[in-house]
Design brief:
four-stranded antiparallel sheet; 114 residues; mainly beta; seven-stranded mixed sheet
Length: 114
């Protein structure tokens, strides 16, 4: 059993910041990648950021320069620092890890609105 527990979603004004956390527990071994997807209302789920086991990082073009992903290997936790938030960042953010397959968190709501 693998569990991913997310936290940090909230309502924030445009220009504000949030930090999401996702802690993985259970039968964790050889994580290939960790990261975040998001899904806005009426849209497909999209990759926001991921960090791969070799340390390489990928961001969606829409968040480059504003979001930073990081990882604490000892805690099997991945973070997403989100700055300069925009209304179009609104959505449910899902963390994931890849071992033999994808494992998903339950999602955390981020709403950017004045």
């Amino acid at each position: 059993q693998v569990q991913l527990v997310e936290s940090g979603g909230d309502l924030v004004q445009p220009g504000g910041s949030l930090r999401l956390s996702c802690a993985a527990s259970g039968r964790i071994f050889s994580i290939g990648a960790m990261g975040w997807y998001r899904q806005a209302p009426g849209k497909q789920r999209e990759l926001v950021a991921r960090i791969i086991s070799d340390g390489s990082i990928n961001y969606a073009d829409s968040v480059k320069g504003r979001f930073t992903i990081s990882r604490d290997n000892a805690k099997n936790t991945v973070y997403l620092q989100m700055n300069s938030l925009k209304p179009e960042d609104t959505g449910v953010y899902y963390c994931f890890i890849i071992m033999s397959r994808y494992y998903w968190g339950q999602g955390t709501q981020v709403t950017v609105s004045s």
